[in-house]
From TrEMBL:
<dbReference type="Pfam" id="PF00156">
    <property type="entry name" value="Pribosyltran"/>
</dbReference>
<feature type="domain" description="Phosphoribosyltransferase">
    <location>
        <begin position="89"/>
        <end position="144"/>
    </location>
</feature>
<comment type="similarity">
    <text>Belongs to the ComF/GntX family.</text>
</comment>
<protein>
    <recommendedName>
        <fullName>Phosphoribosyltransferase domain-containing protein</fullName>
    </recommendedName>
</protein>
<dbReference type="InterPro" id="IPR000836">
    <property type="entry name" value="PRTase_dom"/>
</dbReference>
<dbReference type="InterPro" id="IPR029057">
    <property type="entry name" value="PRTase-like"/>
</dbReference>
<dbReference type="InterPro" id="IPR051910">
    <property type="entry name" value="ComF/GntX_DNA_util-trans"/>
</dbReference>
Amino acid sequence: MQHMILAYKFHHQLKFAPLLADLFTVLLRQAPKQSLIIPIPQMFETTQSRGFIPLWHILKQTDIDGHFAPDALMRIHHRNLQVSATAEQRRRQIKGAFAATCDLSDTDIVLVDDVYTTGATLNEAAKACQQAGAKSIKCLVLARGKWLK
């Protein structure tokens, strides 16, 4: 799964998008009905180089009538890509990287990301949602990354 996601994101293997969307559909159907679904935002420079936002591209293809909020979080600083960083580097690089762009008071949130490696990204995104007043925060990912040496 992780290799498919990386091929999709880094090598423009867009043929994988429908399958990834189907998998997200199955998982998102388990989310509380009134949840606000927020994808983890990527760095602006990454969007420019790829020409698209992979996670949002996949989520738009899901069969979910959910409340998607792709702009509810923004990256307020952009450091290095996380893909090749150590766990400690990931925590340092992503610290304070997100801010909510709207009031999330009394809102149930589902944060969505493609790969979970150390949890640093989701943790920082969840902090931003908490600071904006979110009532509850759940996280949904497609794959669990492994550390390869």
